[in-house]
Amino acid sequence: MSIVTVQLGQCGNQIGFEVFDTLFSDSHSSQGLCSKKENEAYQASCKERFFREEENGVPIARAVLVDMEPKVINQTLSKAARSGQWKYGEHACFCQKQGSGNNWAYGYSVHGPRNEESIMNLIQKEVEKCDSLSGFFIIMSIAGGTGSGLGAFITQNLQDQYSNSLRMNQIIWPYGTGEVIVQNYNSILTLSHLYRSSDALLVHENDAVHKICAKLMNIKQISFSDINQVLAHQLGSVFQPTYSEEGSFHYRRNPLGDLMENLVPHPEFKMLGIRNIPQMSENSLAYSTFTWAGLLKHLRQMLISNAKMEEGIDWQVRPPISGLPALGKMSLKKELRFNTSIANLVILRGKEVQSADLEGFKDPALYTSWLEPDTAFNVWKTQRAFNRYEKSAALVSNSQFLIRPLDMIVGKAWNMFASKAYIHQYTKFGIEEEDFLDSFTLLEQVVSSYSNI
Amino acid sequence: MGRRRRRVDSEAGAGAWTLPEVIAALSRSLPAGPSPEIFRRAKFDRPEAAPALWRLLFQVLAPLPAYGPSTLPAPAADPAHTVALTPPTFVRLRPRGSGHVLLQGPACRGSGTAHPGRHWPCSTLRLHPWRLHPLPPHRSPGSEAQARLVKAVLRSQGYPRPVLAQLPEDGSQGSRELLLALSWLLAREPLIERLLVQARVQLGDQVPEFKGAEWTRGCPLLPLQGEALASCGPPTSHMGAQVPTDLRYVQWLMGKLWFRWRHLISSQQEQCALLGKIHLYTRGCHSDQDLGHLSVTETEMLRDPEGGQQLLRALGWENARLKAALEWRRWELVFWRWMDTVPGICPPDGPAAASQPPVLPRIPEPGLGELERVAQEMQALHEELQEATATRRVAWEAQVGGPGRGPQWSAVRRASQEAVEQELAALRRSWEQGRGPAPPQGHRLVRREGSSARAHGLRAAELTGPLREQEARLQAALRQLQGQCQQELARLAAALPGLICILPPGR
């Protein structure tokens, strides 16, 4: 079953390109550490999901590119075409001549309705070329103008028009010290709207990825391209083909549906975080070996202590002893030490994957009281290695990862809102104070739900 | 226990079958039928005969879709996927990756629309409904669960003997009782014929069964699927202190159900699309001009000779069962005569057994209180009604002036009787209509071009029309129920002053 990706704004388009590039080059890599037949099945599965074929041509990504200015889209299109390996569809992009000046309301209330028909038509054409549609990826930032406002509008339209298809928004969480003064307003408006119309919000934090680039990949001058490649690697390790069940050797047909069913069936808990191990520069890769035991021990501690990467993990954090109240119920003012999970999905790829022992993740102390670890924890194991890593593990987690960042954004936005700063830019285009209040209410509720699990 | 009586066959003597032969025929016509020796042992209540009979009854009462076609619930009525009579749109078939196979069937007759060089999408592999897959071992329920199901179903169908309910569930005893139960089932209805119809091997693509009508007014007993049974834990015959379930867990489960439902819908849409493609591309390939194109089963047969062999085997087995059923019908009197001797050797029911009340399912404690309250309310209502009718009757009689006499009175009476009957008939008709059309059985799905009217067969539009009406009715009912829930929530929220209730973000 296929996934159609909608790339929105500068952020969405640049990341989208890296994602498709990583998916393609991994599926055609010769270092899969598996048989030729296995490799071909992997390739075919990846292709069905993300690419389509036209006669006598290179594979075409199942994507729609949307931006309000042409520059980034043209760059993206040409980069893809230059590779000679794959490309975007010729008529798969939509752009206008002017930007939206980081104004969420302009994106949502003006750009959206004005261009609704054209954009939805493009998406419809892409959907028609799928034999069967699993769902949509929508890649966007939440703090900018185009990506965020327009993205919220489009996700809502997708919900109305394709109500039976799944929608996962890949959202880019802004830097804490961002440059856009109204980024917090944009963020809370986007998040609250997406919470109502999306099925899952997979959050990528710029700060975290930046640190990974600096510390793990040893990149001195970190460009957006580096950040996006790390992001693409994380996404690829989740969404490349995986086996369906223990012992069966068919690739899963509906990974998006399976993932969502395992992680986000509850309507109040939709925020997902992603952790990946190991991550390193290509140069170091050749000289490193890993054991599953070591990798999984680190991954588990990353989960518990809410670490973003495998360096600098706080090993002091321990699961609460059963019988004592969970530490998560403390007020947010204190350091939220232990990260309680609602549900976790671990995806393992590589050599000797069957021997990996995941008992540590089935500890009931890691989870809430109302879900058994059997239900809350799932693992997908695949032999075929990913992106030249001999062994790699990804964790998609529905847990308290994002309470702090969310709370910070809501707090800052509230402070600004209390003094009515910059509100006129929004009310000018139809976003009233009521809408702000609704957003605050919804997000406070989300924070509260997550704090009290 | 009643049984059908037949005229004694006058030529019972000449060429008649012996009892073992007749029982063997019966066994052959049933799924998992045991040998005649088992039957003989069961008459004498031998324990070694019990497991085979438990298994047989289980297969008979809860037929698992292990062999034969699986039927899907009705797909969402979607105009893009009605098959009959829409002009076909040209669909480009792209060569697929590693899964395509050249069609090398017999030369396709017809108007030259055959395409010998077509490549088939490998996803057709997922469409064969008749593949013979016995359920994998971890999915068929254990013998205890089987025994429990057999007892439950027999009880709900009204099996009169209490001995059955008391048999141990480990399957070690009770072969005579099971034999009696089997013959009770055979006598009540044409059991074998019903099972054969359910297990038919289908060559064409079937119109899905529409279970809609039954779902709206509470399902009759549906055969439980193996998976549901396999997940039955140890029997909880009584509800102790109810452990309060966290609402969030219930919401979690609802969400999972919702995702699975959406997945089902997309799979069905995919199946429809592929079915359409196959029908389109095999135009002109079928030897029966009336049908015009191949079904999935027939296409699979051409693509995969090995699979064709399996189909042949399935047809062969079906034939054998049909033959056995015919033989059974011819000679079953022999069996019934023998069965007549079985109750005679049962130990007489002790006074304790006779006085035992029928086993009722135990009602959990809080439920009992509710039921009593409801019973009281009904009693009060009944008394009220009786009073009301009494007063009305008195008033009417006073009006009429006593029981009427004479031709004028009888004419009035006849008229009112007719009026009542008409109203009753009208009510019945509207109820029948509300049920929707009788589900079509055994129709084969065929794609037709143009608007050529055929004498026989059903048009898809005739089926989709009532389905849409039913959908609209169900939507209206859903909206009404949702409205009621909203009102209830609002009422609860208002009842607690000073409390602000924030509803979760709705879909």
From TrEMBL, chain A:
Coiled-coil blocks: none
Cytoplasm as UniProt keyword: yes
Primary subcellular site in the record, as a coarse category: other
Location of this chain's protein in the cell: Cell projection, Cilium; Cytoplasm, Cytoskeleton, Microtubule organizing center, Centrosome, Centriole; Nucleus
Molecular function (Gene Ontology), one example: structural constituent of cytoskeleton
Gene3D superfamilies: Helix hairpin bin (1.10.287.600), Tubulin/FtsZ, GTPase domain (3.40.50.1440)
Gene Ontology biological process terms from the UniProt entry: cell projection organization; microtubule-based process; positive regulation of smoothened signaling pathway
GO cellular component, one term: cytosol
Domain Tubulin/FtsZ GTPase: 47-247
PANTHER family in the record: TUBULIN
Record text on subunit structure and interactions: Found in a complex with TEDC1, TEDC2, TUBE1 and TUBD1.
Function: Acts as a positive regulator of hedgehog signaling and regulates ciliary function.
Protein name: Tubulin delta chain
Species per Swiss-Prot/TrEMBL record: Sciurus vulgaris
Classification lineage: Eukaryota, Metazoa, Chordata, Craniata, Vertebrata
